[in-house]
Amino acid sequence: MIRINENYLKLKASYLFADIAKRVNDFAAANPDKSVIRLGIGDVTEPLPEVCVQALHEGADELAQRETFKGYGPEQGYAFLREAIAEGDYADTSISADEIFVSDGAKCDSANIQEIFAEDGLKLAIPDPVYPVYIDTNVMAGRTGANVNDRYEGVTYLECTPENGYIPAIPDHPTDLIYLCFPNNPTGAMATREQLAAWVDYAKANQAIILYDVAYVAFIRDDSLPKSIYEISGADEVAIEMRSFSKTAGFTGTRCAYTVVPKKLQAYDAAGNAHSVHGLWNRRQATKFNGVSYPVQKAAAAIYTAEGQAQVKAKTDFYLENAAIVREAMTKLGYDCVGGENAPYIWIKTGQPSWDFFDLLLDKAGVVCTPGAGFGTCGEGHVRISAFNSRENIENAMERIAAALA
Ligand code: MLT
Fold first, then answer.
1. Which atom of ligand 1 is least distant from the CA of 215?
2. Is the peptide bond before 183 cis (omega within 30 degrees of 0)?
3. Do 308 and 52 touch, CB atoms closer than 8 A?
4. pLDDT at 13 over 80
5. Strand, coil or helix: what is 357?
6. What is the pLDDT of residue 258?
7. Nearest atom in ligand 1 to 107's CA
């Protein structure tokens, strides 16, 4: 008899964004005359930067000729892209091109990376609220107990609350695998260099590894804030960093991202012998992944030209202007908000259950947000509004919300 992985039975019935999509589709079907503005899932709306479009065309043309045709590429990514990333994003750090693994998404990387670590006895530290992929993939792998009152047993939850400015405190006990995300999804909060340095010290003291998700790095405008964890001395001994071109350059549909696994990084077997994490991840990728398509990697590399950088800045500036409009409108309506300054998300304290507020905005304003409770128990009483949309839709949405809440 074929049996299932029973860890899946511990999960909530559906993935947060699938759940929201279903509710919104039901609402749209029941109200065909109402227009719906989607500020829920953080999906880009602006077209790809021109440099990327041009590179995609060139890549396709190369594939059309026998002389320049390409079959399988290196599983780790083409050298031209890995080198562009090392030079463009890590010039001031110890990170080199061969420590960069190109992939088809930070969602997949943040979901897959856990499988190179122990299944039994690994102590997880996961923020609350959090991007649901971090916790769900560990549940699937059997690293947690049952879900009791919306929390999985055996996990150290790093609480992000109004009281701590949505920056979690370091646990008072050892943990092994620590997930951090800054600029944060969902709160938009950003850790300072000192706060990040304290996490690096903690990881070192506990022979732990930090999984640092910087998918929203392109939105950091405050130069005093760290863009990479490797700006912190010694982080290359304790941290894996994940970045994505999805939000940076509108690649949510195009698919390209990368994960940095430094060669210095070590993890241990049951006997206490050290092993190269870079070697394990390389082995995993070589077995399970066949690389990102050549034209897409060419498009990603184009972002690192001077023209590409200017175009990316213009796109992210546009979304940040949207974020400022949302934050100002919600603040004017009397709601406390964070985020939106170095992140495309605005995290709003609703003063009522977050699913109720979600329903209110959908029913009365036809605007979709993401209920904070979907990101964890500390997200209750909050909603997230995404700044990824056209200016017209953002302005309309804010007018409709103001009318609905008046
Ligand atoms: C989000 O809305 O949190 C993100 O778009 C989800 C993702 O990047 O997978």
1. 8
2. yes
3. yes
4. no
5. helix
6. 98
7. 9
Rounded Cα distance between 309 and 89, Å, is 11
Instruction: List pLDDT tens digits, range 212-257.
Output: 999 999 999 999 999 999 999 999 999 999 999 999 999 999 999 9
The vertex-244 CA angle with 348 and 8, nearest 5°, equals: 75
Could you tell me which residues are beta bridge partners of residue 124? Answer: 155, 177
Domains and CATH numbers, the chain: 6-47+307-405 (3.90.1150.10), 52-304 (3.40.640.10)
- Dihedral sign computed on CA atoms, order 93, 99, 105, 107: negative
pLDDT tens digits for range 321-354: 999 999 999 999 999 999 999 999 999 999 999 9
Which of 43, 136, 255, 370 gets mutated to test ligand 1 (max ligand atoms within 8 A of its CB)? 43
How many Å apart are CA 213 and CA 111, to the nearest integer?
Answer: 11
* CB distance 42 to ligand 1 below 6 Å: yes
| Residues whose CB is less than 8 angstroms from the CB of residue 34 and which lie 6 or more positions away in sequence, other chains included | 27, 28, 366
Q: How far is CA 69 from CA 55, 73, 301, in A?
A: 15, 11, 18
Look over the chain and give the mean of its residue pLDDT values, rounded to a whole number: 97
Distance CA(182)–CA(217), nearest Å, equals 8
Amino acid at 380: E
Ligand 1 pocket, mutate which of 131, 213, 245, 384 (most atoms under 8 A from CB): 131
d(CA 295, CA 54): 10
Going by their DSSP bridges, the two strands 239-244 and 257-260 should be labelled as: antiparallel
Which residue's CA lies nearest to atom 5 of ligand 1? Answer: 42
CA angle 211, 142, 112 (to 5 degrees): 40
pLDDT tens per residue across span 127-176: 999 999 999 999 999 999 999 999 999 999 999 999 999 999 999 999 99
Tokens of 151: 């929390």
pLDDT tens string 77-88: 999 999 999 999
Q: Are 106 and 243 in contact (CB under 8 A)?
A: yes
